[in-house]
């Protein structure tokens, strides 16, 4: 019978349609069933029919869940999430909440104004303390508005080795320190293999605020913070720079190739404010190694290259 054709609309599949009047006549019942099946309502989901037109009053918990979802919505400057569809076969309360849409990147200042402000503030900073103040005064990166803390740097600012990662995550945002979460712990363990700890290196990120929901930072956000990380490196003036992961490698070394090609190789990092180029090596991001454990061997080889370079430069 055409009514049970598997080619029915997937949207209609499994739905129960309202039967307006209960018919007395069995031929009429058969016709109505055929009509429902043709519309895709070909499975019995519950014992007895439910009038979904009355569902909004019949399921108070479902009605309550909508404002709860709204109250968890992103701040007002963000576009509101699409309102959930009313429940069809189950009360909405029994369903998992729809995933929150990622918070969109809203520019804090027009791009050129942000870039000019960043350059001006960063270049005027003559110490790390002044650079923190400059960042606190900078309004050109929208991430600042959603972050809890400015995540500046950790470790020894007088060290000869500087690591630069991507952006703070939730743990870093809470603590106000870079690389303190699981991936930071793995990084500490990895560099511990070659005798390094945070008294012997300094660590920061190319972004100073957490992207909401850990989404990938936009190129505008990276560009807005670029003068700060450039100045940050100039002020620390390390002998060796290690870029941690693809985004920081791209932002600082502009290789135009993936981290899987560039990791473990030495490049020169140079800015006009540096007296000489700094040898820089990309390494895999520890968050990637937590997923791709097979790459740990390559990560280990990269760290041995770092150890060798430090020995060549007489850095212990
Ligand atoms: N990942 C990063 O790139 N930086 C952090 O600070 C934490 C995780």
Summarize the structure.
The protein has 316 residues and is α/β, with parallel strands linked by helices. Helices cover 40% and strands 8% of the residues. Helix 4 (111-124) runs parallel beside helix 9 (219-236).
Explain what you see.
Helices cover 40% and strands 8% of the residues. It contains 13 helices and six strands. It has helices at 26-38, 55-58, 60-71, 111-124, 128-137, 143-146, 170-175, 182-192, 219-236, 246-253, 259-262, 286-291, 296-312; strands spanning 154-155, 161-165, 201-205, 240-244, 267-269, 278-283. The protein has a six-stranded mixed beta sheet with strand order 1-3-2-4-6-5, sandwiched between helices. α4 (111-124) packs parallel to α9. Uracil (URA) is lined by residues 165-169, 172, 178-179, 181, 183-184, 205, 287.
Topology:
Layout: H1 26-38, H2 55-58, H3 60-71, H4 111-124, H5 128-137, H6 143-146, E1 154-155, E2 161-165, H7 170-175, H8 182-192, E3 201-205, H9 219-236, E4 240-244, H10 246-253, H11 259-262, E5 267-269, E6 278-283, H12 286-291, H13 296-312
Parallel strand pairs: 2-3, 2-4, 4-6
Antiparallel strand pairs: 1-3, 5-6
Helix pairs in contact: 4-5, 4-9
The chain binds uracil.
